[in-house]
Amino acid sequence: MMNGDDIDNKEHIDNTMEYKPLMAGEAVREDLIDSTVIKGNVGKSAQLKDNPSSRQTENGDKAKRKMITRKGIVRVLGLLAAFLAFIAIALSPVFVLKHVYVHGNSYISDDEVIRISGINMGENLFQLATDEIMQTMAKDIRVDQAIVKRRFPDALDIQVIERIPLAMIKCDYGYLEVGRGGVILDAHRTLAQVPVPIVSGVEVSNLFVGDVVNNEQLDKVLNYLEKLDYDTSVSIAEINIMDPANVTVYMNRSVLLKMGGLDSLQKKLEITESVNREVKQAKHPIEYVDARFEGSYSIKLKE
Q: Cβ–Cβ contacts within 10 Å for residue 259, how many?
């Protein structure tokens, strides 16, 4: 038996379950067992029974989880209802394509614009992919860019930026309609009724719609024609570039404009537009205008 002083090797048990072993033959005194040993080995339910505040915390967590779950269900149901409402509206006969408004076209007719867009009347407005329509239209060589927008409840707006024909050139099977960058926009067996000048002195072969004419002098002429104001450009009937240093321009009223080279482009543009105004205002017929010298031009009247 142990006395009160001989407790060096007594067993000590705490909440962490750490202990010191007893010596052989020693007995355990019940009054030395700490009550925390019992608490350290009891289950969670017993702890909750002894600690009301822990029970309240757990009950609050459960209530909070239930509240969050209920809010999540309500949110999902709300999104589902909104989606179904959108589907119902989108499929409504109110949003059926009935009108197409075309803007910006001069050479391509409205009907042709609608045809190359690939859209059909009666289609649902929400099901029309405007990006795909624009890509489809851009494949047509005559269209430089197209902008398509929905106009609710039953229409589409199509804004067209055309590749404008600038000149006609002779080819081995007729005439080619050429636009900016030398792109061939159309082909004709004979001179078509297109209000653009014919460029003589150059002839190409084995070229078709969509091809590009690679000719340095023609590129200069196209650049020159593109930058002229509209009134002047339609007054030109023919441009002869056989001799690049002596380009000649035939204007309305059979007026010959001797241009020289097309290197000083801005100055040539100013002279051409000025000559166009002179021709319109002239009281006497003009035989030719000589603009071959830098910075000035002279007018020769018909006798």
A: 23
Domain count, the chain: 3
Strands, E, within 163-254: which ranges? 165-171, 174-179, 184-188, 198-204, 236-240, 247-251
End-to-end Cα distance, the chain: 154
Please name the amino acid found at residue 65.
R
Query: Tens of pLDDT along 56-88?
Result: 555 555 555 555 677 777 787 778 777 766 665
In a domain, 28, yes or no: no
Are 215 and 283 contained in the same domain? yes
Q: Is residue 204 part of a domain?
A: yes
- How many CB atoms are closer than 10 A to CB 70? 10
Residue 81's domain spans which residues?
Answer: 49-90
The pTM is what?
A: 0.62
Same domain, 139 and 219: no
pLDDT at 36 over 80: no
